[in-house]
Amino acid sequence: xxxxxxxxxxxxxxxxxxxxxxxxxxWTMVPQxxxxxxxxxxVIFWMFSHSEPSHRVPxxxxxxxxxxxxxxxNVLKYCQYYSIVFGGYVALSLWMxxxxxxxxxxxxxxxxxxxxxxxxxxxxxxAVGGWLSDKYGAHSVTWWVMWVSWICLxxxxxxxxxxxxxxxxxxxxxxxxxxxxxxxxxxxxLGIAWAFGKxxxxxxxxxxxxxxxxxISGIVGLAGGLGxxxxxxxxxxxxxxxxxxxxxxxxxxxxVWVSLIWMYWTEVRRTELMGRRAPACRRRTQAQAxxxxx
Length: 294
Hints:
Blueprint: H1 2-5, H2 10-25, H3 29-48, H4 63-67, H5 73-85, H6 87-104, H7 108-124, H8 126-136, H9 138-157, E1 161-167, E2 170-176, H10 180-208, H11 213-242, H12 247-266
Antiparallel strand pairs: 1-2
Helix pairs in contact: 2-7, 5-10, 5-11, 5-12, 6-7, 6-11, 7-10, 8-9, 8-10, 9-10, 9-12
């Protein structure tokens, strides 16, 4: 799943291809070139892929029965995690170019290059996140991913600020805010963290639902896709409302808080992750009845 998810690196490639086409040939050329690439991908898939019968569910399995797992609180929790690590990744990948242009006054090509510092590791390193999740467990990797995200988003949320202090020698003005280099570095770290998180969330699914990975990963993936669609709209609405560009990171910071609290009450308290003994977190499978303690 980590190797599969590394295809997200296409979001970074887009940062190089789309601006170059836009500048050289105009915006109408962008969808034409992408349509040709999609057609080529379709032909390659048709010629070289095949179906694996052992991966199919039994013929008597009803789709409605599989969707009953939407009532499982764990599924909803994983949806919430993925709406951050994937939905947030997609949303910020779309948002970063115009953020660099508006916040730091860069031209579109330089902005696209720096934005790739976030989106490229966010895709390529997903396979590494899958390996870490296999070795250390989905819970440990996701917990630390959320904390790294919390720190980065806290710093990214602070808007450019001019502060004037009256001293004995007169008024002194200070500027507080991230320059373009510090901002890009934090986005790079955030991209790495979310690459690991995208893999670790799917490791949860393979651990908890080994006989129903298809449906559950589809539901969780849907939550991530919705996050990637809804968050840019919310980013724009918040900027219109507050006039602060970094309000996008303030929103993501709040969403990460929800994940940390949810994870602590449902998982961390029952593990030794915090350095104290507690009952081991009971892993569950599809055959087990849903717990009510979440």
